[in-house]
Design brief:
The chain is mainly alpha-helical. It starts with 7 loop residues before the first helix and ends with a helix. The protein contains nine helices and three strands.
């Protein structure tokens, strides 16, 4: 179809067809967002003169907010189990950062030596998801762990695989340990399953339980 032949109604039907194929709402939203960006670029470059039809499309409602968080006893058991196996050291240390500092997995992957300030006890998180820089504060356990990991070259990543390459994924070992501990036994709803991101959610939940303000939690999580 020509760009000017695609209407909001066309895209509503397209959206319905995608949903019938059992695509997740987030996937459908990403596809529509890509189309919206295509039209915006075409307008910017003078290749299309007309309205952006995506503006008239109701975006799918996302219901993927994590509800589950770990109780103190569960978190202690998880961390002890990960620590007991030397092969799980990367997973354990990443889990510690997510649980004690609220870091996203992507933020952990991008940590470099220069981001660690042991004098003031904080971690600089540059270029995170919302494009702003924030600081996370080291607990004593995190400080000791990072001291062991700090690379000699400040531009080198903190987390590397056995070949010295930057880590890009959380090892499947994390989920295997979670399954072994039966944290997800009988749980059907994905929102209530324990995954790596649950640790970040746990960090925020523990702050709330201890009476921290929503503003403080928002800033420490790096939310807008």
């Amino acid at each position: 179809k020509r760009l000017n032949a695609i209407t909001s109604f066309t895209l509503e039907k397209f959206k319905t067809d995608l949903m019938k194929k059992n695509l997740a709402p987030a996937s459908v939203k990403n596809i529509l967002a890509a189309i919206r960006q295509l039209y915006n670029k075409a307008i910017l470059w003078g290749m299309y003169d007309g309205p952006n039809p995506v503006k008239g499309v109701k975006m799918p409602t996302l219901q993927n907010e994590r509800q589950r968080f770990l109780f103190f006893e569960e978190a202690a058991l998880l961390m002890e189990t990960l620590k007991a196996n030397r092969r799980h050291k990367n997973v354990h240390d990443m889990a510690l950062l997510a649980l004690h500092c609220g870091l996203r997995a992507s933020e952990i992957f991008h940590l470099k030596g220069r981001d660690l300030d042991f004098n003031h006890g904080f971690i600089t998180i540059a270029n995170p998801k919302n494009k702003t820089t924030r600081h996370a504060y080291m607990t004593e356990a995190v400080r000791e762990m990072l001291k062991e990991r700090k690379p000699d070259n400040p531009d080198d990543p903190v987390f590397r695989d056995s070949k010295g390459n930057p880590l890009k994924d959380v090892s499947n070992a994390f989920q295997r340990v979670v399954d072994r501990l039966k944290f997800n036994e009988g749980v059907k709803d994905a929102q209530h399953k324990v995954v790596f991101h649950t640790l970040r959610h746990t960090f925020a939940s523990w702050l709330a339980l201890q009476g921290e303000s929503l503003l403080t939690i928002k800033e420490m999580m790096g939310h807008k």
